[in-house]
Amino acid sequence: MSDVPPPESPRRSRAPRPVAGPLAEPAGAATDAADRAGDDAARPLGAPNPGLVGARPVPALPTADPGRGRVLVDGTTLADAMPAIVWLADATGRTTYLNARWADYTGEPSTTTLAAGDGGARFVHPDDRDLIAARWAEHLPGGSRAGQKFTFEYRLRRHDGRHCWHLGRVLPEHDAAGTLVGWIGTASDIDAQKTTAIELAEREALFAGVLAAVDAFVYVKDRDGRYLVCNDALAAFFGAPREQILGRAFDLAYHPPEVAAAIAANDGQVMEGGRTVRVEETTVVRHPDGTEERRTFLSVKSPFRDASGAVVGVVGVTTDVEPQARLARGMAAANEALQEQQVELEAQAAELEMTNEQLQEQSTELEVTNQTLQEQQVELATANLTLQAQADALAAQADALRAANAELAQTSERLALATTASALGVFDWDLATNALRWDARTRAVFGLAPDAPVDIDVFYARLHPDDRDRLAAIVATALDPAKAVRDGDGPWIGRYDATYRTVWPDDAAAEPGAVAPGAVRHVHATGHVWFETDAAGRPARAQRFTGTVRDVTAEQAAADALRRSEARLRRLVESDIVGVLFWDVDGRVLDANAACLALLGVTREDLVSGRVDWRAMTPPEWAEADARGVAQLLARGTMDPFEKEFRRPDGTRVPVLLTAATFPEEPGRGVTLVLDLSARKAAERALHAARARTERLQAATAALSRAATPEDVARVATAQIVAALGAQGVVGASLAVLEPDGATLRLLAASEHPDGIQAAWSTFPLATDAPIAVATRTGRMVEAWGAGSGAGAIYPRWAHMRPVFDAIGLRAFVTLPLLRPDDAGGTAAASAGARVATGAGDVLPPVPGSPAFGAMAVLFGPGADAAGLDEAARAMLDALAQLTAQALARAELLAAARHARAEAERERERAAEANRAKSEFLASMSHELRTPLNAIAGHVQLLEMELHGPVTDPQRAALARVERAQRHLLGLINDVLNYAKLEAGKVEYDVREVRVADVVADVLPMVEPLVVAKGLRLTAGPPDGLPGGPPAESTGTRASDALVWADREKLTQVLLNLLSNAVKFTPAGGEIALAVGADGGAVTLAVRDTGIGIPTERLADIFEPFVQVRARPAGPAAASTTAATPAFVDRGLTNKQDGTGLGLAISRDLARGMGAELTVESTEGVGSTFTLRLRRAVTPDGAPTDRRTGEERRDDEERRSGDDRRSDEPA
Question: Over 60: is that where the pLDDT of 826 sits?
Answer without folding.
Answer: no
